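User: I'm putting together a small comparison set for a docking exercise, and I want a reference complex before I start. The sequence is below, and the ligand is cytidine-5'-monophosphate. Could you produce the 3D structure with the ligand included, as structure tokens?
Assistant: Of course. I'll restate your input first, then give the structure tokens for the complex.
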Amino acid sequence: MVAKDRIIFALDVGTIKEAHEWVKLLGTQVGWFKVGLELFSAEGPAVVGIIKESGLRCFLDLKFHDIPNTVYGAVRSATKLRADMMTIHISGGADMIRAALKAAQEEALSCGISTPKIIGVSMLTSLNQEDLGDMGIHRPVKDHVKSMVALACKNSIDGIVCSPADLAFVRAHIPARTTVITPGIRPDWASKGDQKRIASPQAAIRAGADLLVIGRPISQADDPVEAVKRIVGEIDSR
Ligand code: C5P
């Protein structure tokens, strides 16, 4: 895979106008654009439209988590929008995971398009050991992530989102075909922001990541295009 196709730029903006400007600026530089809850709640399906109409790939990160029947419907709708990948919470359980995969396949077949990938969030990177305890989960974070990943893979999920800290461990426990995606990417020259468990682009890929979600190191750079080029160079030199 060429380095640029490993980069998912996070469109963490509130308006379609800003999103469109980023798509125009970075469309030839990165492989993917991520639409999350903020932008989708503000502007809806039209945002996916501007990415797809530009011939680019969309990672719809809405982290579906509901009863299987509802997630089935949500994934069918997102597939109809032509999202190329979308997220669910693995903690929704086996039936929910299978409903998501089935919906993606059935809707893609009926639209005559390729099946989007269903990506499972193993554990939110904002949670720690204490938070797990508060939810009555009394086991080490790593064991929890391991169970989540095992559940997802047992049900044939297409990919996993995990923190950079868990990459090597997750990679070692999943089939080779399963895509691994990680946020928390910080090149050495970028500010850390609120990210704690971080990795550089090279380190994340060496540890087993296929795709990197990157926002502020690009969006807050003085020259975002130059920042992407530096990141691509670093990935290539790993
Ligand atoms: O920190 P950065 O701006 O690169 O974040 C890009 C994306 O990564 C955000 O859209 C957010 O959803 C995701 N993220 C995450 N876990 C974090 C921080 C950010 O999943 N700890």
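The chain has a mean pLDDT of 96. The CA atoms of residues 131 and 137 lie 9 Å apart.
User: Thanks, that's exactly what I needed.
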